[in-house]
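Many introductory courses stop at the sequence. We go one step further.
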Amino acid sequence: MQCSRMQVASKLARSSAFLAAALSLAFATCAMAQPTPPAAPPVTRESLAGTYDGGQMEVAAQLLLKPDGHFQYELAYGALDEAAEGTWELKQGAVFLTTVPAVVPPRFVVESDKPDPRGGLWIKLSSGPLMRGARQRVYLIYGPKQEPDMAEIADDGRVSIPAGRHPVAFLPEIPVYSTITTAIPLTGTRGHRIVMRFEPHDIGRADFHPQPLSIENGVLIMPRRDLQLLLRFRRQP
């Protein structure tokens, strides 16, 4: 018995539909048979406590998160050495470090400011140079909308000021550290002979108030924009 072309086409269509349904059922059964991966354990204070290494090229760093909510931190980066201790907490999915007690920042104190009849600027550090073998630098400030000029203090204390410019204040630099000191005003139209001293206070202590560390796959990430660093602390066994 011969089938018409229409009957053959109908049989092929039914066979294709049956095959598609069978394959769909097979794939669904296979997917249901696959074991569901276990959910990641929740991040808690207890799970975060431990020692973390943040070392990278030219950087040595370590962070210790204690179960009692205290931390210890150390960083060596080039000539910079800093440390901190205090408290830490977990909130909003991140770790926050707070230095305790609060950091007392270093500062420069003016001991005397006498007029210079020649109209120049002379600065002397009674406490001696901050870095042996390097001249002290200052930033000359001319106004709120003008870029400061960096200048070195010569061995005799003289500070070179560009011709035609009249600074209204200067900002002493602390070598190596990114600490910003308070600007020292230069009042009047005459020159200045200034003697100042440096009070280091808590220089070398990291001032976290607080410092957030995001958590990515168990790695604690600390951005240090002041040092142009991104520290990645990995848990140690």
